[in-house]
Amino acid sequence: MSAIVIKQPPMPNIRVSLHLSGKTYESDICLNQITQALGVEPTKARKKSDFPIGSQRTKVARDSWSLVGIRSQSYNANEQIEEFLNFWEEKKGMLKDLMTDLDLNASVSVSIHTNKQEGYPIMLFSRKLVQFSADISASIVIDDYRYN
């Protein structure tokens, strides 16, 4: 008698990231100042002068600093959100100071990459995430990528 094997579909890929940027095109931000203050190397940092000329002409470009999380498979986005919050909790005071001192915009981004076979993960924004975002004046952004 052979065992019955139930094949699980692949799980969605989820990533949680923090993005900081200047509020206006005219804002000149020292990205190294953010890195030094937080003691964290960004996964992506970009000066507005590095953007395509069209983005500069239309003043869409902004100096930006991001720590992009690693994609991990899960049916529950809250696992990655909790890891994100645990990482940033001790740096929250410094983030608040930077937001004020450098006049920054911030966003917490939850990226979900999934296809039809994978289904969609549980999405629940805990009070802890909402409070963290409010404390640093950050928007919460959902980037939803669905593939066939």
What this model shows, in words?
The protein has about 150 residues and is an alpha+beta fold. It has one domain (about 15-145). It contains five helices and six strands; from the N terminus they run βαβαββααβαβ. Strand 5, helix 5 and strand 6 form a beta-alpha-beta unit. The model has no long low-confidence stretch (mean pLDDT about 90).
Oligomer: single chain
The best one-word shape is globular
Radius of gyration: 18 Å
Low-confidence stretches: none
Mean pLDDT: 89
- What is the rounded distance between the termini? 37 Å
Major β-sheet, in short?
6 strands, mixed
Please provide the ordered H/E string of secondary-structure elements: EHEHEEHHEHE
Structural class estimated from helices and strands? alpha+beta
Instruction: Give the strand content.
Output: 25-35%
Q: How many domain units?
A: 1
Helix content: 25-40%
Number of helices: 5
Per DSSP E runs of 2 or more residues, the count of β-strands stands at 6
Offer a quick outline of the entry.
By secondary structure, the protein is α+β, with helices and mostly antiparallel strands. It is 30% helix and 28% strand.
